Amino acid sequence: MSETQSNEQITVFSDYVCPFCYLGRESLTQYQSTREDELEIDWQPFDLRSGKRNPDGSIDHSVDDGKDEDYYEQAKEGVRRLQKKYGVEMDLDIATDIDSLPAQIASYYVKEQYDYETWLAFDVAIFDALWQDGENIGDEDLLVDLATDAGVDGDEIRSALADDTLRSEVREKFTAAQRQGITGVPTFAYDGHAARGAVPPEQLERLVEST
């Protein structure tokens, strides 16, 4: 990683439909609870569905991405193991049919237009809606409700989701992440160093406090 982060900020590349991103954020929360100073999250979107995404942004689920039943069963086992390790209850193990692009567009809009605390509340609500409640975070009405609860005007979210320019910006972020060498998520980056996966709090501590 080439970018240097401030002492108060950690960059996190993630996709809402990635269960390990949800678990990784729980690990980060646990690490944060041991710190005196807040470590802000500089969220950067990543598209796990990029190999199946059509030019218009829709997903072609018929595309073979090499992830068979054995792959998903191993992933589920990994999720269950980390759930137990981090003390996290989850409604889902894997979310294969949900498109996170609308959620990422909405989250990107809030991140750019609102203060950090408002974005963070919305971001956490999106994660919880999917992994705690099993809801479809690709649904516009759900995103409007979550945003409203976080203090964002729901009409702004509807406008953001219909904004082709904003959609293009988010997809450019996906490309930029790949150009930076991000091949999997979550990836935590700090001061030129990185850790990939839902790593434990002590590894995040080493990443941040040993650099």
Automatic annotation (TrEMBL):
Q: Where is the DSBA-like thioredoxin domain?
A: 9-207
The record, for Pfam families, names:
DSBA
Q: Which InterPro entries match?
A: DSBA-like_thioredoxin_dom, Thioredoxin-like_sf
Instruction: Name the Gene Ontology molecular function terms of this record.
Output: oxidoreductase activity
**Cited Gene3D superfamilies:** Glutaredoxin (3.40.30.10)
Tell me the SUPFAM superfamilies matching this sequence.
Answer: Thioredoxin-like
List the PANTHER family: GLUTATHIONE S-TRANSFERASE KAPPA, THIOREDOXIN SUPERFAMILY PROTEIN
This protein is called DSBA oxidoreductase
Species of origin reads: Haloarcula mannanilytica
